[in-house]
Amino acid sequence: MSNPFFKNNGPILILDILKILKINLNDLKENININDIKDLSASNKSDITFFHSKKYKEAANNTKASFCITTESLKSELPNSCLPLVVENVLVSVSMITSLFYPDAVNDDFDDSTTYIYDTNFKDKVIYGKNVLIGKNVSLGSNCKIGHNTIIEKNVSIGNNCSIGSNTIIRNSVISNNVKVLDNCVVGKHGFGFFPNKIKNLRYPHIGVVIIEENCEIGCGSTIDRGSMSNTVIGKNTYLDNQIHIAHNVKIGENSIIAGQVGIAGSSIIGSNVRIGGQTGISGHIKVGNNVEIGGGSGVIKNIPDNSKVMGYPAKNIREFLRDNK
Fold first, then answer.
1. Which of 181, 204, 221, 274 would bridge with 243, disulfide CB 3.0–4.6 Å?
2. Are residues 242 and 153 both part of a single domain?
């Protein structure tokens, strides 16, 4: 599933895209339509993609996209079927093209389409508190509860037997059965995606969603950002403590437990059966394997293989940490 809630303005002619990128592609034989912009793995022949880091070399080798926004140093990693579009700053260029396809995904203002729940068809279907608002394109399953002053903004699907706490805001999210989102959470809002500029910071469109699978619990005061180019995913039976931040595109596996005040930066992948201690910080684009235990207060700045126990900053094998801190 990708961007089900944002209107795609495609198809867009490749020459129009090249004009925005200020690229003259002599190898181009015809002015074909491009249907969408997607990441390397999700792209099809009719899409454009991007490649900005060697971390994604394997995905670049296997991409099915016809065109890829990339750099001079990385273009050789692409298959012959994918024409490189060489630019100076890949992510800035991707932002420009994503905005072309999805202009509504750049800003994230409050949802002015909401209605008091007692004026909707949900009034007799769920148990709700005072001042509950519901936006457009919202579905609620059976046996759900929604707390006081909570806003279910546009583009939300909530399954059966779910409990949404008070003072919570949810938008652009797909929530499965038996999920608890506690008080004061914000789920599905725009992530922290922008590019610094001396004149004006450039906001990055976020066209992904938040997916919370069944039997999860999201602790009080937590924030889960929707994905930028892919989705943010919380795997089934995963529990988040209070005041946790999950950034855009993060993927968390099944049966994981994350203690309070943990921050996971964008596009990191956390495996299944992972335990993360409180106040741990995990850098962006990191991969944490399955069955990993991370001690509280750690700083994770590089990948962690399966079945590891680590602690400290930078996080290291727990035996090394204890030895070095006697």
1. 221
2. yes
